Amino acid sequence: MPQLVEDTIIARGALYTKGADFKSCTRQDGNLITGQNRSSSAAVAKLLLAALEQ
After folding, report:
1. How far apart are CA 31 and CA 13, in angstroms?
2. Which of 1, 12, 35, 45 lies most in the core, judged by the most C-beta atoms within 10 Å?
3. Would you say 26 and 34 are in contact if contact means Cβ atoms under 8 Å apart?
4. Are 44 and 33 in contact (CB under 8 A)?
5. Which tens digits make up the pLDDT trace of 1-54?
6. Neighbouring C-beta atoms of residue 36, cutoff 10 Å
7. Distances (CA, A) of 29 to 1, 2, 25, 45
8. From residue 13, how far is each of 7, 10, 18, 34 by CA, in Å?
C-alpha cells in the first residue's frame, strides 16, 4: 500500500488541513503560501501579491 504524504507529515508533527475536493483551499504560514489544487490558483496569487506588498 502506498504511503500518503499527509500521513508522513502528521506523524512528524505537522498541522495538516485540507479543503473539499476540487474546491479552492489555501494556507499561509509566514512566507509559505500553498494551494490544494488548481482551483486554488487565483487565491494563491492574491495571497502572494498581498505578501509582496508588505
Report:
1. 19
2. 35
3. yes
4. yes
5. 688 999 999 999 999 999 999 999 999 999 999 999 999 999 999 999 999 999
6. 19
7. 31, 28, 14, 15
8. 10, 5, 16, 18
